[in-house]
Amino acid sequence: MLDALRFEWMRLTTLRSTYWLVGIGLLAAAAIPVIFGLTATDEDLIPEFVALAVNGGASFGIPFLAVFMAVIGIFATGHEYRHGTIQPTLTALPQRSRLILAKILVVSAATIAVTAVSMAINAGVVLVFFGEVPGLFDDPVRSALLGYMIYTLIYTLVGLGLGLLFRGVPSALVVIFLMPLIIENVIVGLSSIPTLDWLVPLVKFLPFTAGTLLMSVGPADMGMGTDFDFFDRWGSGAVFAGFAAVIIAAAWTLFKKRDA
Amino acid sequence: MITAKGLYKRYRKTVAVNHLSFDVRPGVVTGFLGPNGSGKSTTMRLMLGLDHGEGQTLFDGEAFTDIRRPMNKVGTLLEAKPFHPTRSARNHLRMLASANGVGDKRVDEVMELVGLGSVKRKKPKGYSLGMAQRLGLAQALLGDPRILLLDEPTNGLDPHGIHWMRDMLKHLASEGRTIFVSSHLLSEMQLMADELVVIGRGHMIFNGDVDQFVRDFTQSTVIVRSPSAEGFTAALEGAGAEVAKGKDGELIVSGMEIGAVGHLAFTENVELSELSTRSASLEEAFMSATGSSEEFIAAEPIAPATKTGGSANA
C-alpha cells in the first residue's frame, strides 16, 4: 500500500495543474474575507459572519475551494483515461483496489490540508481587517467550520468518483457543476409551486443541498419560507456522504470489472 | 519465460482472441505477428490483466496482477504516447518508479540509455512519435526486468532508430531476457526475431522459429535458365514437376527438388545457364499464412486510365 501511496503522491505533485487549482482556490476563498474587510468593517462579528468569512463564502453558496479541489479529484482519475496513462499506471501498479484506495487517501489528505490552510489564511485576513476573530474555536463557528472541511472533502471525493465513473474529465466536470448549481436549485425552486409540492419532502435528500447544511451556523432556511424539514448538520452531511459513497462504490466496482 | 494458456476475449459478437496458447522462451526475441485487427494488442492486454477475458498468463510462474512491484520483473510498452502532456518525461518515469521501489538514479540511467538524457526535463507533448517510443522503452526498462512485452515499439522510429531498437532488443535477449515484441514490419521481424507467434483474427496460425515459418508457408521453387527451355519444360512436366515461365524467360519449377532438376537436365543432356532455388521472404510467407484472415481488406487500387492519342492542353 505504501508503494501505491507514493505513486499517487508523485502523480499529484508532478502535475502543474494541481498547484494552479490549489492556488486559485485559496485566492478565490481568501477574496471573500478581503471584500468583507474592505466593505463591511462596521458589521458586527456575529458567528454567521465569521463562519462565512473563514469558509470563503462557501456557506453562502459559492464553495470556491470545494469546486477547485473537486476538479483535482476529477483529474485524479479522469486524467488517467484522458491521457491514456491508465495503462502504464496499471502495469506499474496492477492491484486496482489498492490504486483507487491510494487515490482516495492522498486526494483526501491534500484536501483536508489545503482546506485547513485556506481557513487559516481567511482567519488571518479577518484578524487583519477586524482586529479579532471572535468565537473561532467555539460553537457554533467551530462546528460550522469543521462541517465546511467535511463538505469540501466530500465534494472532492464526488469529483474523484465521477472521473472514475465516466473515465474522463469533461462529463465529470459537467455533472459536478450542473448538479448543484442548476439541477438541485431548479428542484428546490419547483417545490415552491403548489402543484409540485410533493417535491418538498425530497429536497432534504438532494446531496449538494444537504451538504451545505454541514456549514450552517443557525437553522437552515432556503430563503423561500418553505420548511423542508432538513436533517441536522450531521444527518445532512450523511446524505451528502452517502451520495459520494454510492458514486465511488459504483465507479470502484466498474473499474474492477471494466477493461482498462 | 512467458506461458500463455487459453487466452480468450470476446467483444459482443466478435471473438478478438480465440483460445491462444504459446510459450515465449528466454534468450531469444519472439516476434508477435498478425495483420491489423488480428488481436495482437488485445492479447498483450489480456496477458497483463488490463483487459478481462479467459485464460492465464504466467511470467516466470506468476500472474502479472499477483506480482509485487511488477516493473522489476516485467517491462511493458503498449501505447505510443501514454503520458500526461505537461508532466516532464523524467517525472513521468519517477512516478512509475515510485510504485516499484526504483530510485531516481535508475530513472536518469534509462533516459540516457534510450538517448533522451538531454530532453528528460522537457514536457513530452513536444516529443515526436519516435521520441515517445524511446520514452516508452525507458519505461519498460526502468526496473531492469527479465521479461519485456513490447507492442509495436518501432512505430514512428526513423531507420536509425529502428536499427538501434533492433540491436537493443537483440542485446537484451542475449543477456537471457525474455523478449516478446509485436510488429507489423515483417522485414524488421525477419532481422530481429528468432521465433514467431503468428495470429490471424485471434486464431493461432503459427508458433515456432522464423525459418520454419517461411518453410511451412511458402513453396520453395527452382529457377532454371536454359537455351533449350521449351524442350526441358516438357521433360520436367513429364517427371511430375509444375513449370511456369518467368517474365525474363526463366523456368520456375515447383514440386521438384533442385538436385532432381539438375539430374534430369544431365540425363536429358540439356545445357543449363542457371540452376538455383528461390526462397520466399517472411513477407511472402506472412501473406500466404494470413491472407484469408485479414480483418480489414482494402479495395484493389484502381488502374490508371490508359492514355489515348492526342494531347490534353489546358
Largest sheet of chain A: none
What's the count of strands of chain A?
A: 0
Residue share in helices of chain B?
25-40%
Structural class of chain A: mainly alpha
Q: What is the CATH architecture term of the largest domain in chain B?
A: 3-Layer(aba) Sandwich
Q: Tell me which oligomeric state these chains represent.
A: heterodimer
Rg of chain B (C-alpha, Å): 25 Å
DSSP strand content of chain A: under 5%
Question: What fraction, in percent, of the residue positions of chain A are helical?
Answer: over 70%
**Total helical elements of chain A:** 11
Question: Would you list the SSEs of chain B in sequence order as H and E?
Answer: EEEHEEHHHEHEHEEHEHEEHEH
Q: Please, what is the CATH homologous superfamily of the largest domain in chain B? A: P-loop containing nucleotide triphosphate hydrolases
Q: What's the tally of helices of chain B?
A: 10
| Number of strand segments of chain B | 13
Mean pLDDT of chain B: 85
CATH class of the largest domain in chain B: Alpha Beta
- What is the H/E string of chain A? HHHHHHHHHHH
Rg on CA atoms of chain A, Å: 19 Å
Would you give an account of this structure?
The complex is a heterodimer of chains A (260) and B (314). Chain A is mostly helical. Chain A has one domain. Chain A is 72% helix and 0% strand. The longest helix of chain B has 16 residues. Chain B has a 6-stranded mixed sheet with strand order 5-6-7-3-8-9, sandwiched between helices. At the A-B interface, helix 1 and helix 5 of A face helix 2 of B.
